[in-house]
Amino acid sequence: MSALLFKLRNVPDDEADEVRSLMQQKGIEIYETSAGNWGISMPAIWVQHDDDLAIAKQHLKQYQQERASKARESYDEDRKAGRAPTLMQNVARRPFASAGIVLFCLFVLYVMISPFVRLAVHS
Q: CA-CA distances (angstroms) from residue 7 to 4, 33, 70?
């Protein structure tokens, strides 16, 4: 019987390719399911045999720790070199989206607080 190993929704292609090649290198039989025609199914990598699941998860955990460490190091290097985008650079790159987010947050804050303000005023 097969078992779920790795969900592929919102996973970068390079990471999915690396997971596939890792399992192939370790000799673990896998198969993949797609999101389907409408994108509502679960795209994932499955282990063919339940017996391989524990070892596959162990290899996957080690891989993900190494990938996170490399990404963290790369970000730290970019930040020290001044290549990492700042908040103001992100706002300048997408001013309308940023303004929309701020306005939405203010609206939510208004909806949350206004009943208490009205209650205090009418008391």
A: 8, 9, 21
17 alpha carbon, distance to own chain's centre: 16
pLDDT at 122: 83
| pTM strictly above 0.85 | no
Bridge partners of 46? 4, 31
- The full DSSP string for the chain is --EEEEE-TT--HHHHHHHHHHHHHTT--EEEE--TTTT-S--EEEESSGGGHHHHHHHHHHHHHHHHHHHHHHHHHHHHHT-SPPHHHHHHHSHHHHHHHHHHHHHHHHHHHHHHHHHHHH-
CATH topology of domain 1-84: Alpha-Beta Plaits (3.30.70)
What mean pLDDT comes out for the span 107-113?
97
